[in-house]
Amino acid sequence: MSEGKLTEYGASFQNKAISNLLTDPDFLRQSIDIISPTHFDNEHNKWVVSKIISYYDSYKTIPSLDYFKAELKKIKTEVQKLAIKEKIKEIYAVSKSKDYKYIGKEYIDFCKNQNLKTAINTSVDLLDAGNYEDIRVLINDALQAGNQQEGGHIYKDHLEERYSSKERITIPTPWESVNVLLGGGLGPGDLGVVAGNPGGGKSWVMVAIAAHAVKMGNNVLFCTLELDEDYVGKRFDAYFTNIPVNELNASSKPIIKDAIGKLSGSLEIKRFRAQKTTLSEVETYTERLINNGFKPDLIVIDYIDLLKVKNNKDKRNQLEDLYTEAREFGKEYNVPVWSPSQVNRTGAREEVIEGDQIAESYSKLMIADFAMSLSRTREDKINDTGRFHIMKNRYGADGYTYNADFDASTGVIHIKGKHTQVSSGNPEIPNSGSTGRVIENLIGGRNTY
User: Fold this and answer.
1) Mean of the pLDDT values across residues 222-237?
2) Residue 1 covered by a domain
3) Is the pTM of this model over 0.70?
4) In terms of residue numbers, what domain contains 334?
């Protein structure tokens, strides 16, 4: 440490520190003024860090792998080129390691200390010259360097970042009609809500969304605050085997094992106590899973309204806080979050449930990135049918109503391709917008096709 190098931290730490610079634009932006190639004791690490700094100075974002490939071609010595290539592979191999947050904090603290040490050494000469104001500015700048920046997206400077490093990776639902409207599905940090009346099948919708994600190779954390873990597991058994949940028994195990063996993703079901569990406790459990090697790609909370809020606000404002926190929770772990929600008594009797019929807090709809309602009347339950209505869609058109076949014994739901567009009648909820108008032109306005 006295030498101003990361030698005492070891090679693995240094690789992870550089990996943070290459994978987290915000981390690089925070540390760019205090990092230095000279902190590293390996010439190949120094080369990579110097290239990161050079690229950021020009384009204000993290460099891509293609950039390094191009820079490697400029190296004339084959031995050096091969060694740096292997070093880059090592660095990318530890991307987002379990301890990346700790590594990042420790690395920035080291850089801050080195920056402050340099400022103090420089101050000795300034002190002899009596330049006290220069000393004050120098020390103050050193203390401020590397602090978390609150600045946002600088429009002119961050063109490269807008189009190269933040591609929206989505996890699709089982229904292509919904995926088209969503631009592929919910993306990282998105909050999706399915509203419906009690006993209408909302939890089955959650099972269908989660099960489809698992079939697509994703890791899913399914948090239940109503049903026992075993019974939720049986619902997934029913979905994957197409055997009604009330007909599953010990003799069904060979069929279930065969179905499970074909799944490319993983599923973790965890029951939390309703009205006694906070979202922070769910976060703690999620962090534990990640530390044990299970990184969720999608999280279902069945359902957010049953979480506990540690404040004395009224119910409406408590729910608003909960949904805001749930959306931030998804952003923190970079995953989509789905949750069901109740509708009020008026909505429970409607064939098409509109946005203003959300129970308790209308703000839930405003916070969500995507919200659709499920309506199943008594006749629908007898006929295994239902209707989905797109109430809000941050990524495209809304206002559409779809008919569906709904098997409430297996969770297998088929949303039919035909739909009608229904205006919400509420100016606060964005309807189809420009995207919707394009679709209306294609299908002939609001007529069913």
Assistant:
1) 96
2) no
3) no
4) 176-443
